[in-house]
Write a structure and sequence with these properties.
Helices cover about 60% and strands about 0% of the residues. It is an all-alpha fold and about 270 residues long.
């Protein structure tokens, strides 16, 4: 069994702490903040992907209860990602303007891990693969995720295996296409929410999926407000539409029926 002899060696700190390369000349003090903010976000996103993939294996095995701790962990990781925006928000517009040019065409929009999380959560868009075409390993991993069921798809397949009437259009389909809302799926979820004792694990999983979608939406909103605070409505790095684009995606829903079910539930009368 291999064992670490040293804390720094185990964490590969020499490589980790030497991975911050400022490009501004002379070096601008706040460029370090910008780099570390995004590097730590990528580390947390790596853990989100690790945990989400493990959760999906449990769902495929119909072991929902075993996944609940992991789902809770994902929510806490997302909280860390959300809170990081408050650190970047200390960067003023005039400070950022002094080193923004060194980013060139680099943009967070190009993050393969962010794209992977979107694909795992079901936000599929084949065109998004194009920006990763020059990196074969990255491209192959994303294409595999694009063509595979997302976490919500796997949950609906689990419900179908339990005998609930999830339509085949949502258990056997082209997974590379965006998810489409279904009234039949909403009806299935109504059954679960109106009978939580009978479907306790499924009921709990529904709420945990809502947790991670809500946290992701809050992260997107905070991202949008931080960008607005720092660059206003200027074009984003890499030529993106910046705040205008971020505003559009904030209202996007990954698991639409889990939100629609709240409107459709019957109220219990005395």
């Amino acid at each position: 069994m291999q064992r670490a002899d040293d804390y720094a060696e185990y964490l590969d700190l020499e490589r980790l702490l030497s991975a911050q390369h400022t490009l501004s000349d002379p070096p601008h003090h706040d460029e370090m903040l910008f780099i570390i903010q995004h590097q730590t976000s990528e580390l947390w996103m790596k853990l989100v992907i690790h945990e989400m993939c493990a959760t999906m294996v449990y769902i495929q095995q119909d072991q929902l209860e075993a996944s609940f701790k992991i789902m809770s962990r994902i929510k806490h990781i997302q909280t860390q990602l959300l809170n990081q925006w408050s650190v970047l928000a200390t960067l003023t517009p005039s400070e950022y303007a002094q080193f923004r040019h060194v980013l060139g065409t680099a943009s967070g929009f190009q993050s393969p891990q962010y794209r992977m999380i979107e694909f795992l959560m079901g936000n599929k868009n084949e065109r998004m693969l194009e920006m990763h075409a020059k990196k074969p390993k990255e491209y192959a991993e994303l294409k595999e995720a694009l063509n595979a069921p997302g976490i919500y798809d796997e949950f609906l397949r689990h419900l179908s295996r339990k005998g609930l009437p999830v339509p085949k259009s949502h258990t056997e389909r082209d997974w590379s296409k965006p998810y489409e809302q279904s009234d039949e799926v909403t009806a299935v979820l109504c059954t679960i929410y109106e009978n939580p004792e009978e479907y306790w694990d499924d009921y709990e999983m529904c709420e945990k999926l809502v947790d991670i979608e809500e946290a992701f939406t809050l992260w997107r909103f905070r991202h949008m407000k931080t960008v607005e605070r720092i660059i206003g409505y200027k074009t984003g790095t890499g030529g993106t539409a910046g705040v205008s684009y971020l505003q559009r995606i904030v209202s996007q829903q990954f698991f639409p029926e889990l939100w629609h079910v709240r409107t459709n539930l019957k109220e219990v009368s005395d």
